[in-house]
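Posting this for the archive.
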Amino acid sequence: MNRVIVLFFGYYVGRKGNIMRKVVFAAIFVIISTALWGQSNDLLDRFLEVEEADVATSLLLIAQASGELPLEAVPQDGFFWGAEQNFGKYLKNLTPEDPISLGLFYLALFKAFDIKGGLMYNALGTPRYAAMEAGYLGYVEPSRLYYTRAMAPYEVLTGITYVTDALEGGTL
């Protein structure tokens, strides 16, 4: 998107000789780009201000990181996306504003990125075994490995970062 705007800007400036048009176009470009930048950070700012990560925003971030939802999606879209997945049965008793548990988060994350786990995780595919698999892979400290505990927003972002880095050949 940014390349398209820059290419268009360069083309527009190169085609028009009037300096006033160049200045006006540059000013409009700066105003629009700062407004779009502010919108994209607003969701993360609000997410990081709360103590416990909510289900809808956490699932939205997982879906966006895996490429399932566009960046313009809202948290409700993340909740609906999660309900349509094969782990959606674990969302039936939850609302979008409820805190996400460690087990549900890693189950959704592993399913979204198609991460294979150990024998019990592959056989049962429950939040309990997803949390245990996350501990085995080193994504969660063993002392914090309670699959029903609510996650903090920074833990959600850290978990997504660990998985995406590992898939790209990074190390933990």
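The mean pLDDT is 81. The radius of gyration is 20 Å.
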